[in-house]
Write a structure and sequence with these properties.
18 strands; 54% strand; disordered N terminus; globular
Amino acid sequence: MTASRRLGWNSLLLGSLLAVSPVRADELAGPRYQIQGFAAQGLIGSTNNRFFGDSRNGVSTEFTEAGLHGTWQALDAVRLSGQILYRRAGESDRDGLRVDYAQADWQFYQTDVSQLGLKFGKVKLPYGLYNETRDVPFTRSGILLPQSVYVDNSRDLLLAAPGAFLHGASVQAYGAFDFLLGWVRPNFDSPSVDYSFLGNTRPGKLEGKGALGARLRWDLPTDTTLMLTYANARAEYAPGSSDTLAAGKVQFRNILFTAQQRLDTVTLTAEYGEPRFDTAGFGPFLPNSHRVIQAGYLQGEWRFLPAWELMLRHDIFYRDKHDKDGHLFAAATGLPAHSMFARDTTLGLRWDTTPNLMLRAEFHHVDGTGWLPGPDNPVFLSREQRWNMWLLQAAYRF
């Protein structure tokens, strides 16, 4: 399905969710209706490699985000919600306007301390601490999320997909629990995902066949959050004309561990996973492989003044847990070893100038190109191992 056809279908679905009945302007401020939005513009500069546009030794303005979010409590037990998103991120994301998600949430069981529900449609995927809100700049821990876990190259795959999730929550004396369990059909059909899973853009199509997702979260009375996320996704490749690849299969599995501790003005967060990545049946140009990735980060946020926050993060990503420095990969392929890893140290500053306006600055020192956006850096051998990146962003919400 083409991008325009997907957008047309998704727009129709979102329109039906938000406009089933006429809504007067005064009703939009009522408890059953809510419309919110945001817009953000970023500036990016980098050395040696490009990120979200032509940022190398210059400034890229090709990082733009804007969204309009709506919810409608159609019935006491049914809530409809959706978001239209505009996003431009260099060559990695040129789709522009799209429906981010559009879902219905049916709360079919509820007591004073527990509830069960079912959400379905194009649903947000429960992956880690930030994935469900990653499109809103105000909810992110930085201008960029940790790329080891929330790889922007695989954003289309991780963000939202058609499917359904059973979810529940319970509040007890020893904390609050919630879970999600469901099935979706993820979107593998994008140039960035091709780079991540197949090493380059291909003439054929990588089509998602299904994914199982689950998450268990425990919020303790000590301001501690513990979480486990499980994902198991499959895709099949349909070769294009003059394709060097055969009809192969891809499987991605991961258990992600999350821990967060909030201490007055300081928040400490860590997430870690070892995704399993298997390819089979693609032929001699992409041999069968089984790879264990290692990905994680440690992050601290300090709200040192009511309107100011400092963030420090160290982020690691290894494409092969058993070949962290990439030497075995380089010996076998003749390609740069640094494409197999990335170690990123980030320093960020946030200033909430007003309740609606946020300004951010961020600096990254990166060793490796393991998560460098392929579409922005198409000449593989021109990528350099050590590089720096700075980002500025202004974001407004209403």
